[in-house]
Amino acid sequence: MKGSAMAAGAVMLDPFSSIASHFNTSVDDTIKVALIGCGGRGTGAANQAMKTKENVKLVAMADVFEDRLKGSFETLTKVHGESGRMAVPEENKFLGFDSYKKAIDLADVVILTTPPGFRPWHFEYAVQQGKHIFMEKPVATDAYGIRKVLENAEIAKAKKLNVVVGLQRHYQSNYREAVKRINDGMIGDIISGQVYWNDGGVWVNERKPGMTEMEYQVYNWYYFTWICGDHILEQHIHNIDVANWFIGEYPVRAQGMGGRQVRTGKEYGEIFDHHFVEFEYPGGAIISSQCRHQRDCMSRVSETFQGTKGSVYTNSNNKALLKNYPNSILYEHAGEGDPNPYQVEHDELFAAIKEGKVIINDAENGAKSTMTAIMGRMATYSGKVMNWDEALASNKRLVDDPEQWSWKSQPPTLPDENGFYPIPAPGQTEVL
Amino acid sequence: MGNNAIPTESPEHVMEVSDFWMSVHEVTWQQYELFVRRDKNNADPISNEKLKELGIDGVSRATQPYTDMSFGMGKEGFPAVNITQYAALSYCKWLSALTGDFYRLPTEAEWEYTAKGGVLHDYFTVINSLDDYAWHKGNSSSHYHAVGLKKPNSLGLYDILGNVSEWTMDAYAPYENKSTKDFWRIPQELYPRVARGGSWMDERSKITPTHRIDSQPGWKIRDPQLPKSRWWHTNAPFIGFRIVRPRVQPTPEEIIKYWLKPIEDYN
Question: Integer distance in angstroms from the first to the last C-alpha of chain A?
Fold first, then answer.
């Protein structure tokens, strides 16, 4: 992006800039985007960026897997090739663990959609280079990563960089309508709540012959805590984040239980198949958080809260229902025809960049909601009470510095002779 | 077929369909998930020769969805929803490969024939006391219901109207005033294709044997990936399916036409 709309106005009013205008009859308003992490979600996010009304061009792509990058390039070329928005020449396709730097250097805006373990360093570099950012949740997998993101969130703020985090409920109408009414006092103060992501679990990528252990773990990343964070982060963060958002605080304490009872195959790595956590908030609210990857059990992905004057129910299917006690409806969100929250994220990001009036900075909340889920995981892995300050100060790192990232490096967890990984054991596992 | 009073259902025309069996209930989550998981079907696989007769050289595996596709409305005994037409048809292919009998989705004409009660033509009785037969917006309490709780129509089909809309084999297009036998409008594009029957979300005026629903890209609006899923809708908790088996099994050459190829969704 050569200049924002406001800068263009300033140029035209400046009598001394007439020479410059000979070279540029119109201001180049192209916003250049780089995609870091070319899986299905990254490809989707790049598509959404190119579907905004601003003059967005994808100029660079980076991944560690060649087939992912190739597939993503082909898909995006099919959709945006004709419009000219897809503008990634061969030399701007970068492979390898350090490829993110090369791609970020070429852009005004970066899309960070690799597995979460790598995110803090990608975010840090993008902020250092002064780029606007869309990054997916979760934003880290350990407390060290969170501290890095928080630190750089402050720098981003100072540099007036826009940062959108893919906690898309913040960009979804039913949630926005609900939170408006909660903040207006419709249900009083929230004193308790239940948040859920209970379902049958997600995809598995099977080990291919010839893969190094590192290659396999990055390929089947969902099941390795250092890259994924466990499903309490990767999925359930959405619901935990809603609790933080609606209450307006972050919890001071967590305790919980969890384990791995049904989904025990080696292809499921080391993560638990269920977690149940009690979060305690400064104002006294207690939130129960459940997440489960077990088949043929109750499926529920939603949030419920009880306030001093009423209750609220929300889910990602555009529902919001606020009631008083005992049971009269105060507000019901219609939801039909609501915009796609994944598109709204990008619409608002690029509009903010173009107009320069509002600066979006989701990074701090993204980091603190991720930290909430990490604290929950620490509680279920250890079986101990976790306090926010101690959890956030933890020096137990799960992810090495980028200099150590290579296909030949040794991941922090390794399989036994039968291919099974060590599983956290409450009462024994140390997390701080 | 059709209803001259409604533009999208006009003109009324006569269609002939060959004999077929149709499943009494909408396919439930338990039945559908057997196909998604493929881990409980290691019983005697049918012979290669039999597979050839069914025009099957392989059945694609559905992906595990990222989130709860029932949207908390219940799974045990409840109809599977948010299923794409390709997924529903792949379920039929999987079931055919498992049993050796040819299963597919009903054509629009077959579906309407059964919804009208076949030759018994009971549909005025059904429409006149719709609440006894069908879940719709007015009585569903904003969610789908377990299959088979309402009265069946005169052919013994439960929830053929209401509860969840049901996929057909057909592309959606205006009717031509042509009377033919075993007509099927073969889809060339991903959208729109026809679903029938109306659902728990529809006003009772849409719960008729003639009402047509055209599928839309918006049914996947919250799929954050690209290409969007072949297997799952994200915004269609009203779309399910039931299956049919023709009494006379067609030749392999004819059957192959029914195994529609997937079309990538770049919307």
Answer: 44
Per-residue pLDDT reduced to its tens digit, A371-395: 999 999 999 999 999 999 999 999 9
Domain tally, chain B: 1
CA A186 to chain centre: 30
Residue A30 confidence class, pLDDT cut points 50, 70, 90: very high
Bond into B227 cis (ω within 30): yes
Helices (H), chain B: 29-37, 48-53, 85-99, 108-115, 123-128, 130-133, 252-258
- Which pLDDT band, with edges at 50, 70 and 90, does B44 fall under? low
Does residue B108 contact residue B252 with C-beta atoms inside 8 Å?
no
Q: What CATH number corresponds to the domain at position B176? A: 3.90.1580.10
CB A369 within 8 A of CB A236: no
Which tens digits make up the pLDDT trace of A280-297?
Answer: 999 999 999 999 999 999
Question: Is the CB of A75 less than 8 angstroms away from the CB of B266?
Answer: yes
CA atoms of B129 and B143, how far apart (whole Å):
21
Q: Which B residues 28-67 touch A at CB under 8 Å?
A: 33, 37, 63-67
User: What letter would DSSP give residue A216?
Assistant: H
pLDDT band with cut points at 50, 70 and 90 for residue A252 = very high
pLDDT of residue A11: 39
Task: Please indicate, yes or no, if residue B1 is contained in any of the structural domains.
Answer: no
The predicted model gives A51-65 an average pLDDT of 97
User: Strand B212-214 to strand B193-196: parallel, antiparallel, or no bridges (unpaired)?
Assistant: antiparallel
Residue whose structure tokens are 């933080």: A244
Domain membership of residue B204 (yes or no) is yes
Q: How many CB pairs under 8 A join A and B?
A: 63
Say yes or no to pLDDT of A25 above 60.
Answer: no
Whether A77 contacts chain B with CB within 8 A:
no
Strands A300-307, A310-315: parallel, antiparallel or unpaired by DSSP? antiparallel
Distance CA A41, CA A202 (A): 14
List the one residue out of A408, A343, A262, A424 whose CA is nearest residue A47.
A343
Range of the domain at B215: 7-265
Kindly state whether residue B168 falls inside one of the protein's structural domains: yes
Q: Encoding tokens for residue A209?
A: 């012959």
DSSP letter assigned to residue B248: S
Mutation target to probe the B interface, by most B beta carbons within 10 A, among A301, A319, A321 is A301
B27, exposed or middle or buried, with CB in 10 Å at 0-12, 13-18, 19+?
buried
> What's the pTM value of the predicted model, to 2 decimals?
0.91
Token pair belonging to B140: 């569903």
Please check whether residue B160 is in contact with residue B24, taking contact to mean a CB–CB distance below 8 angstroms. Answer: no
- Is B2 part of a structural domain of the chain? no
From the list A360, A358, A370, the residue with the least C-alpha distance to A163 is A360
- What residue of A is the nearest CA neighbor of B67? A199
